[in-house]
Design a protein that fits this description.
With about 450 residues, the protein is of the alpha/beta class. The protein has 21 helices and 14 strands. A five-stranded parallel β-sheet has the order 4-7-8-1-9. Strands 12-14-13 form a three-stranded antiparallel β-sheet. It has a two-stranded antiparallel sheet with strand order 2-3. The chain is elongated, with a radius of gyration of 29 Å.
Length: about 450
């Protein structure tokens, strides 16, 4: 929730309030130190980087460095960059109507310097929230110097001003983020001649616009993201620009399974009215890690965190679909919803050339492995004799993605020890959906550990 906007509306009132001018990097330095000392979260929502990436990032910010985050796709680089703006003060004063957020104490553009000379302490002051002090540009091939830095504004020229008038300049994204944080995503994709335009921003802290004798001492923290060049092959960060960044920080995928799970819980949009049991989220997380580690997958391209999120959301959607068709009051995901993630996610993975034609087979095998590993962890030591006894007399149980929870329980009949299975999986078992989810997971685990058989129709037998 935003605090109320400060009341000071003129330069004189601002001076009387005792406001002190700081650069963006000094502001971030002060606020980061405050959070470090108090134990407050510094980068909310960032998972799995606490002991690896974040210490490097904190050192870079405390040192006042512009920086590059380097890592494969889907490692949370952009998400992390956006949290840096949260280290700015909630409100900062700017000259009223200024296009580049000049501070009233130190205006830099021609217009604001002229107004300051004319109005003195009556110079109008506006307040800018930190959410509006963050700028971002994806480095697309059509990005121009005018987009980033600025160009002549033909409208202002048409109004009668001469081409030599500095006020005919239309400022680009970087000057408009003056006194804030500016991010360039996928910096190597920016044409080298365009990267040159950032050299002065990083070193001399000014900009050059066409033939204008214009020097703007910009106050900005510049942050860039990049994929490893040996994978993208789409470009590179030119050496002079790379040299001007104070820090290069490597990101990574979640190291621990618990971090992968936390990320799925936090980011996946599973929808209202559907429950995805914890053991199925664990299967999706394990599946993601197995795909990432597979020799059949191009390791240089990586397997994005979005892979796991899309997988969890697909599982949830399968449960919702079954619930709608079967008339269930509450949709609960089951093992039968897992196979659908393979065709859904296949396009997110780049395979080695030698695996061409086997992509689906590879993913299906890894999904079975993930399910089996989760079964061993959760139910590996459980007493499943009561369930196995159901098949001693030759009985079979048919399941499937469109078989409702109540129908599956009816087909199976009473199962001694089902309550314990539900409990070990961390569910209450209060609904038929939860009981059916636990039952089907146990059946699938017994099949994957070769204690039951299963045919193509989803029928389990001894």
């Amino acid at each position: 929730m935003r605090a109320s906007t400060p009341r000071e509306s003129t330069l004189g009132e601002l001076r009387t309030s005792g406001h002190q001018y700081e650069t963006v990097k000094e502001e971030i330095h002060r606020n980061l130190l405050t959070r470090l000392r108090s134990g407050q979260p510094r980068f909310p929502g960032i998972v799995g980087f606490d002991d690896t990436v974040l210490p490097h990032l904190e050192r870079a910010l405390l040192a006042g460095h512009d920086l590059v985050l380097l890592g494969e796709r889907g490692q949370g680089k952009t998400r992390l960059i956006r949290t840096i703006a949260g280290l700015l003060d909630e409100w900062t004063p700017v000259v009223g109507g200024c296009e580049i957020n000049d501070h009233p104490y130190a205006p830099v553009c021609v217009r604001c310097r002229r107004l300051a000379d004319e109005l003195g302490d009556a110079l109008p002051v506006a307040w800018l929230h930190r959410d509006d002090r963050y700028g971002e540009k994806l480095a697309t091939p059509d990005t121009s110097v005018g987009d980033l830095i600025g160009d002549v504004d033909p409208v202002k020229v048409a109004e009668g001003r001469t081409l030599g008038d500095p006020e005919t300049v239309h400022f680009g994204l970087v000057p408009r983020t003056n006194r804030g944080v500016f991010a360039v995503n996928e910096l190597p994709d920016l044409a080298e001649r365009i990267q040159v335009s950032l050299l002065n921003v990083l070193e001399e802290r000014d900009v050059q616009i066409r033939g204008y004798a214009l020097r703007l001492p910009l106050d900005v923290l510049l942050v860039a993201s990049a994929n490893p060049e040996d994978y993208t092959n789409r470009g590179r960060i030119i050496t002079p620009l790379k040299d001007r960044f104070g820090a290069e920080i490597r990101t990574h995928y979640p190291i621990e399974l618990s971090d992968e799970l936390d990320l799925v819980r936090q980011e996946a949009e599973l929808g209202a009215g559907v429950e995805v049991p914890e053991h199925l989220l664990e299967v999706v997380a394990r599946f993601t890690r197995l795909v990432r580690e597979s020799t059949a997958v191009d390791a240089r391209s990586g397997v994005s965190a979005r892979f796991a999120l899309a997988g969890a959301e697909t599982v949830a959607a399968g449960a919702v679909r079954r619930g709608a068709l079967a008339g269930e009051d509450r949709a609960v995901a089951r093992v039968c919803d897992l196979p659908a993630v393979v065709p859904t996610l296949m396009g997110k993975v780049e395979f080695e050339v030698s695996e061409e034609g086997r992509e689906q087979e590879v993913l299906e095998h890894l999904l079975r492995r993930a399910t089996a590993e989760t079964f061993r962890r959760t139910l590996g030591g459980a007493d499943l004799a009561g369930l196995l006894d159901k098949f001693d007399s030759g009985e079979t149980v048919e399941s499937g993605e469109l078989v409702s929870a109540e129908e599956l329980l009816r087909r199976t009949g009473p199962v001694p020890g089902l309550g314990k299975i539900v409990e070990r999986l961390g569910m209450s078992g209060e609904s038929p959906g939860q009981a059916a989810a636990a039952l089907e997971f146990a059946l699938e685990g017994l099949f994957l550990t070769r204690r039951l058989s299963k045919d193509d129709t989803g029928t389990y037998s001894l």
